[in-house]
Specification:
The complex is a heterodimer of chains A (about 350) and B (about 110).
Chain A lengths: L5 E5 L3 H11 L7 E5 L2 H10 L4 E4 L8 H11 L4 E6 L4 H9 L4 E4 L4 H17 L4 E2 L2 E2 L3 H10 L4 E7 L2 E8 L2 E7 L4 H9 L5 E5 L13 H21 L5 H11 L4 E8 L7 E3 L4 H22 L4 E7 L3 E8 L2 E8 L4 H16 L1
Parallel strand pairs in A: 1-2, 1-3, 3-4, 4-5
Antiparallel strand pairs in A: 6-7, 8-9, 8-11, 9-10, 12-13, 12-16, 14-15, 15-16
Helix pairs in contact in A: 7-8
Chain B lengths: L20 E5 L5 E4 L7 H20 L6 E6 L2 E8 L2 E8 L14
Antiparallel strand pairs in B: 1-2, 1-5, 3-4, 4-5
Chain lengths: ~350, ~110
């Protein structure tokens, strides 16, 4: 029998803590409830033992809820979080979701609202152990395709990985075609199988679609698994020679609309990779200085993490974005709109990570 | 009866609202016009202006002249347009719907 979930309640009002403790005890999963009246103490409790869920007020003295959530997101990324507040400002709701909270709830004031709140919280608690697609717990995309093919099903799988989308057409248990934004056929299938995370959706079959992939599904999966293993081997074994990075940069430099790409590693002055620039160093210096300055500014403004910086010029546009310990700068054709650049930049970063 | 106040719950400090408004600076970073709330710290306005002007000048020095900068934070969008060496700068909180009212793109 699995241990009951543990919920930490954070609110500066002791009466409300007592009230919500009683309310949350009614959850079907019978959680253990812990309480804290200050952000500092809540953080100390989270350090000392694992919790399933943090239910957090926003308006508190000394350390407010947004500050707590910001630290929690960084230090305990797996922890589920629910904001329970009487602050109804849209801006705070937006900022809380930007910090990755799972739910934002106005403090319930009626029996019906309490029941809805309890159902939502139970759903968030249950999500930990039930991650997956269409009830297939812990199943990978390979597993799902195998299941569809072994069952001789006909369907179209639509897979999304952040801004990237792909489709796999299955007809009578065989993979007949595949497509991503830029690729089709087998290359698209291998690209999709390389995505580490994603969501799946099953669409109605398209029986009229011509067969493009002639390989059997077993052969396809085997080849794709080998390609993924090889890529993983490069990533795990030899990051120093940079061959994987060079390959990725070369691929991304061919992204539609991209004129150049520059990849910078944190703490290194020289660009790690550059394509399409005759003299990358001055641009690299500008990128490093500009991202550093606007990151620091964002912290002072409490605007949340810097996601993207775009510069629009009469001859060329440029977009800068951080990802993990790398900074990216991509030059874009000047006829692209700011919205299109933003969308394309997200795809470039997702492709880099896939 | 003031002694009863010791039993009252102390009012929590108000959370800082994200800035919303615009301002214009000249080439030396002096603020010419501003629609930002008066409570928004003046030093922070100057710092924003300084960062923006430095970014424009740095881009020009790198042979990549820019006329507009858009900085997207998760909860805030900053848009700056170059204005004869100075700049006009817009600050707009990002809402969940993604519609950023008062943004120059939508104005």
């Amino acid at each position: 029998m699995s241990a009951p979930p543990k919920i930490l309640l954070l609110d500066d009002d002791q009466d409300l803590l007592d009230l919500y403790r009683e309310i949350l005890k009614q959850l079907p999963s019978r959680p253990e409830i812990f309480t804290s009246s200050t952000g500092m103490r809540a953080l100390a409790m989270l350090e000392s033992e694992p919790f399933t869920l943090l239910v957090c007020d926003l308006n508190m003295p000394r350390m407010d809820g947004l500050q707590v959530l910001s630290i929690v997101r960084r230090k305990f990324p797996e922890l589920r979080t629910v904001v329970l507040t009487s602050v109804l400002d849209e801006q705070f709701r937006s900022r809380a979701y930007a910090l990755g909270v799972d739910l934002f709830w106005q403090k319930p004031s009626s029996e019906r609202e309490i029941q809805q709140f309890l159902q939502s919280v139970e759903s968030v608690i249950g999500r930990d152990g039930n991650a997956g697609f269409r009830g297939m717990q812990s199943k990978s995309l390979v597993d799902i395709i195998q299941l569809e093919c072994i069952s001789r099903n006909s369907t179209v799988l639509r897979i999304t990985n952040g801004p990237l989308t792909g489709k796999v057409w299955i007809q009578d248990g065989e993979v007949i075609d595949s497509a991503t934004d830029e690729l089709g056929g087998e290359p698209a299938f291998q690209r999709i199988l390389g995505w580490k995370t994603g969501n799946f959706e099953s669409l109605p079959a398209e029986p009229g679609r011509p067969r493009v992939i002639m390989n059997s599904y077993q052969g396809l999966l085997l080849e794709s698994a080998q390609a993924i293993d090889e890529a993983q081997g490069v990533a795990d074994g030899a990051p120093a020679n940079g061959s994987d990075t060079s390959h990725k940069t070369a691929t991304l430099s061919r992204f539609p609309g991209a004129e150049f790409i520059l990849v910078l590693k944190a703490g290194v002055d020289q660009p790690s990779e550059a394509r399409g620039l005759e003299n990358p160093q001055p641009v690299a210096d500008w990128v490093k200085q500009t991202l550093g300055q606007f990151r620091a500014l964002g912290e002072k403004l409490q605007g949340g993490p810097l996601q993207q910086l775009q510069g629009l010029g009469s001859h060329r546009h440029v977009a800068l974005a951080p990802r993990d310990d790398l900074d990216f700068c991509v030059g874009w054709e000047h006829n692209l709109s700011a919205g299109k650049i933003s969308e394309s930049m997200k795809k470039v970063l997702a492709l880099w990570g896939s | 009866m003031g002694f009863l106040n010791i039993f009252a719950k102390s009012a929590p400090a108000p959370m800082m609202l994200l800035p919303k408004g615009s301002f214009t600076v000249d080439r030396d970073g002096r603020v010419l016009i501003s629609t930002l709330p008066q409570a928004f710290p003046e030093a922070l306005v100057r710092e924003i202006a300084d960062r923006v002007l430095t970014a424009f000048r740095g881009a020009k020095a790198a042979q990549m002249p820019l006329s507009e900068l858009i900085v997207r934070y998760s909860s805030l969008k900053l848009t700056a347009r170059e204005l004869r060496g100075g700049a006009i700068i817009f600050l707009v909180p990002v809402t969940l719907s993604g519609v950023e009212t008062s943004s120059p793109e939508y104005a």
